[in-house]
Amino acid sequence: MPSSNGRYYAGCDIGSTTGKAVILDENRIVASAIIPAEIDPEQTARKVLSKACEKINGLNGTNDFAYLVGTGYGRNEVPFANDNVSEISCHALGVHSCDPSIKTIVDIGGQDVKGISINEDGSILEFAMNDKCAAGTGRFLEMMSKIFRMDLEAFSNLSLEARNVIPVTSQCSVFAETEVISLLSKRRPPSEIAAGIQASVAKRSYTLLKRVGIRPKLTVTGGCSKNKGLLVALQKRLRMDIAPLPVDPQLMGALGAAIMARKKAGSITQ
Fold it and tell me: 110 and 57 in one domain?
């Protein structure tokens, strides 16, 4: 367990479904945490930071950080942060710090999907966002897993068993739910229906990515980056591999925020 002899910088990413925190020292990640989101974003921030702090001897809470940056859906509700920054910028910087050769990101979160194109220095070249409909997001996949009476992990693997893909054509999440229930009632293979669901999410992500320009390498961030079935469907749609990341892809926003915190603290002390 790391000692608190030195300066620490934190990034706190408050999403619609999870809270993420990353703590850096001058050289590396020393602690991180992911928790389910509370109704109150401030409470989520305090809990996830506290969980990360538990991994560092002598680090007690938000007052012990040299600088703290908040990001994500609830970033404006973290009153103890020194600054807050768009999650799009934070994901770009977090990914760039892990692999500077990655130029395109699709961030699939709980309530929206973002396509991000990155400059050579890790700044944003272009971005597009689909936040008008739940279809194609983590919430949509969570709803679908409940229809199959499965947890998300089991549902994400179900489509990998499919021999064929049964298309799910409805563009609305509500109508898609009805369509899937109808297919199941007709005793169509569940794995093939699941493959159709994953393919529909991949198609939505692909449409968004075309708006920002798809440049190799490409990676996936956000909670849906852990959905194996979706990654396979997305690779088929893109006809290109998805670049792996050396750090949990769900932490990219918090990592980028922590890197910004370290930069901002450095500019203050100079």
Answer: no
Rg (CA), the chain: 19
Nearest residue to 92 via CA among 126, 118, 70, 112? 118
The residues near 188 (Cβ < 8 Å, ≥ 6 apart) are 166
CATH number at 114 reads: 3.30.420.40
The pair phi, psi for residue 121, each rounded to 5°, is: -95, 5
Tally the residues of the chain: 270
Q: What's the total number of domains in the chain?
A: 2
Beta pairing partners, 24: 9, 29
Q: What is the pTM of this model?
A: 0.92
Within 69-167, where are the H helices?
Answer: 87-98, 138-147, 152-158
Query: Is the pLDDT at 107 greater than 70, yes or no?
Result: yes
What dihedral do alpha carbons 172, 178, 184, 190 form, nearest 10°? 20
Q: What is the pLDDT of residues 227-249, one digit of tens each?
A: 999 999 999 999 999 999 999 99
Residues 237, 109 share a domain? yes
